[in-house]
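Action item from last week, closing it out:
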Amino acid sequence: MRFERMERLPMTPSLPVVQPESLLEGRKPAWLKVRAPGGPNYIRLRHRLRDWNLHSVCEEARCPNIGECWEDATATFMILGDVCTRNCGYCAIAHGRPLWEDREEPERIGRAVGELGLEYVVITSVNRDDLADGGAAHWAATLRAVRRLAPGCRVEALIPDFQGSAASLAAVLEARPGILNHNTETVPRLYRVARHGGRYERALELFRRARARAPEIPRKSGIILGLGEERDELLATLADLREAGVSILTLGQYLRPSPAHLPVARYYHPDEFADLAARGRALGFAHVEAGPLVRSSYHAKRQAETASA
């Protein structure tokens, strides 16, 4: 890391001091409150996903924006099952040894996107370190199915790191996603605690390889805040991502899924997110989506359009 070149800025003095979750006994700041889902479009989409036997990361990861996004008939599809081979300290998705293979899933996803008339869709997956290619062939088949069955839809691929396999990454890029996304999630110091099985340098190398192989495909990454990162570390990580070729960045607040997961070190005020967004734009990111409830796929279509403009 290159901390010596990062300027340390004081935090805005007028902001309230928000204590760690452990001291607040689980109480969250007012700006983290969201309306409970339950509108007609939310119910319709939930039933359709059940009918098609499809998974959404919106449900599996307990995203706070599920009500808003599903009311807009927008969802993030999760392929390759709902059991992850890794056990990250912040993630609500089930982990273990997957016993799942569904060769028809790519076609079902393509048909679902086409029938819903979606203009923009995000596809993601669990880590499948049990597969030789990490699931890359399944990824490529899914992307091609959506392009064939819903040609007017732009697809964002939120991929795992494939354990650093250049061949697996190439297979996904050859299927031509509209945007390639891989979440860095946190600063390098916290990888051992938060990202079991992940490697910070591996994430950066993924972006460098993608830029070299398919420079026309925009690259995107996301970080969750509140795991214990220091400001210098965070700013240095943003600089690393920009230098690796990332052009779209998301920054959101970590929310503890359960007592078994990592505790929240602190809650960031909305003004702090605004400041970090300005810092990101100054570094050269084409678009920065930052806020307490921001997740990688939140307003993904708008992010892509803003970055393209």
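Closing note: The first strand starts at residue 55 and ends at 56.
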